[in-house]
Amino acid sequence: MRGSADGVASDRSAMSNGGVAVDKGVDFANYFCTYAFLYHQKEMLSDRVRMDAYYNAVFGNKHHFTGKTVLDVGTGSGILAIWAGQAGARKVYAVEATKMSEHARELVKANNLEDVIEVIEGSIEDVTLPEKVDVIISEWMGYFLLRESMFDSVICARDRWLKPTGVMYPSHARMWLAPIRTGLGDQKMRDYEGSMDDWFGFMDETKTYYGVDMSVLTKPFSEEQKKYYLQTSLWNNLHPNQVVGTAAVIKEIDCLTVTVIDILNVRASISSSITTEETRLCGFAGWFDVHFRGSKENPAQHEIELTTAPSEDHGTHWGQQVFLLHPPIEISEGDDMIVNFSMNRTKENHRLMEVELSCEIRKPSGKLLPPFKNKYSIE
């Protein structure tokens, strides 16, 4: 989930997901059309952490915008384009794939910026601009940063339209992982067990009343329910005291130089130390932050950070992605962990992700706990 969308409304296929053909018509129906609704835009425009970061980044660094040309990739409601115009941009190209472009055009007009901002409905992969731009601004981040794969479109825009001296907003991004405690795992296990109890009741009734034995389907039903309840990551806004060990960066991104190949697979081996006395390791949480630093040649005057880390009072609509363990593991302060993490795009839908996570825990005595490995989906 994020604040705007850029895509394509044609039926042609595109190459994405590491060279796998993607049907653009299906992609539009499954993904882009979601952002054509004002209620969805309102949800993200109400995220004060998100809004404040972009607002402060633009107006705290007017030197990047005054008299400059700007491209807003996936303009959505048009608010980033409007801020760029208000900050003094000479010209802003606001590209939007969905009919939200019509609302953006009206909003631009209502804010007296129609002479500066040109709203273009279409895919950034397909549109042609009359000039190169000095700044590319976009709010492309999905759950755990890379879900939705919209960053592909931003990279495409950068490679096609950004001047060699241009800057990216945001300019950098990082992905984090940390061990956590939470009651979500217990709840999800109860949900799974309840679904199986319901299945057995259904199976008995079908045999009694209709003479059909459904037991052969018990295993695939169980696997289906396990994936839904136990192997799908969860969205949650965690409190900082739910983080029970040190957090580690699993991916760093320079938006000015990164390629699509660089983000197809995220792999990391990290270490973490438990910092909480006698608790349960219930899973891991992933979050991200992005930074507005400009570039080495043209740095920001005021660097801004937007973080989705666990917070006491400033959660975001992104929250954190929670990867649960079943059952939890008893841990204590001083335990050391080696965590191997990998994340890939699913074969069925390049906008969704598959995660594999394994861990070894060593006690201060040197004793190793049995290692574990789990798979999850980010849907």
Automatic annotation (TrEMBL):
Name of the featured protein: Protein arginine N-methyltransferase PRMT10
PANTHER family on file: PROTEIN ARGININE N-METHYLTRANSFERASE, PROTEIN ARGININE N-METHYLTRANSFERASE PRMT10
Originating species: Actinidia chinensis var. chinensis (Chinese soft-hair kiwi)
EC number assigned by the record: 2.1.1.319
Keyword Transferase included in the entry's annotation: yes
Catalytic activity: L-arginyl-[protein] + 2 S-adenosyl-L-methionine = N(omega),N(omega)-dimethyl-L-arginyl-[protein] + 2 S-adenosyl-L-homocysteine + 2 H(+)
GO MF terms held by the record: histone methyltransferase activity; protein-arginine omega-N asymmetric methyltransferase activity
One Pfam family this sequence matches: PrmA
GO biological process: methylation
Record domain Protein arginine N-methyltransferase: where: 191-361
Keywords: Methyltransferase, S-adenosyl-L-methionine, Transferase
Annotated Gene Ontology cellular component terms: nucleus
Quaternary state and interactors: Ring-like homodimer.
Top enzyme class: transferase
